Amino acid sequence: MLVAQRIVADINRRGNQVGERLPPERAMLEQYQVGRGTLRESLRYLELQGVISLRPGPGGGPVVERPDSSSLSAALSLLLQFADASHRAIADARATVETLTARLAAEQMSDDALAELRESVETMHEQMDDELVFLEENRRFHVLIAHSSGNPVFGYLVEALLDILAASALGIEFPGRRREEVYGAHTTICAAIAAHDGDAAARAMADHIDEYVRYAQEKYPEVLDAPITWTA
């Protein structure tokens, strides 16, 4: 673990970018003064965290990557499983966190992010009959807002919560009428954010999450009460 932390510190110090190779094994062995087994375990740990990828063959070796929310969602789902938490806990957390992120995004979302948010709403509408696109755009919409809150903790937390509560994995289906309702909610939230109206954005997001919970409770009551299981 200490070697892994030193490797990450050196990545930051050097300013390595995604796709750049790290020094070869022999150089790292000399630099960190550890055995080959210890170095390789450190690199494998960093690979599991999404910090690097280990490419085989000539010219391969450790390559810098950008970590995503998958490690956080895996760790969080493991903690929640041992806490005997249900998926309802995730829905409740979303209601609190995303209401706040919508308010913050309305105050400071960049023009580029707002353009992408509008594009997500339009894409969902244009490809309403494609369930895969619908689910992808639904996630993208919420992630964009969370990461536009100005607080990266909220961004990655919302991503992790959405990963755990992924509708397709839980078996929740969205027929045409429900998709139209989601699209309408996204349109309302997007308009409030574009108008820089934090109160309206927060109310619209709260209503949107509440509608989702009511729908799931009515159609799939067993899903919300199902215990969370660890996914890696």
From TrEMBL:
Domain HTH gntR-type stretches: 1-67
GO MF entry, a single one: DNA-binding transcription factor activity
Keyword Transcription regulation set for record: yes
UniProt keyword list: DNA-binding, Transcription, Transcription regulation
Alphabetical list of InterPro entries matching this protein: GntR_C (IPR011711), TF_FadR/GntR_C (IPR008920), Tscrpt_reg_HTH_GntR (IPR000524), WH-like_DNA-bd_sf (IPR036388), WH_DNA-bd_sf (IPR036390)
Gene3D superfamilies in UniProt: GntR ligand-binding domain-like, Winged helix-like DNA-binding domain superfamily/Winged helix DNA-binding domain
Cross-referenced Pfam families: FCD, GntR
Name of the featured protein: FadR family transcriptional regulator
Annotated source species: Aeromicrobium phragmitis
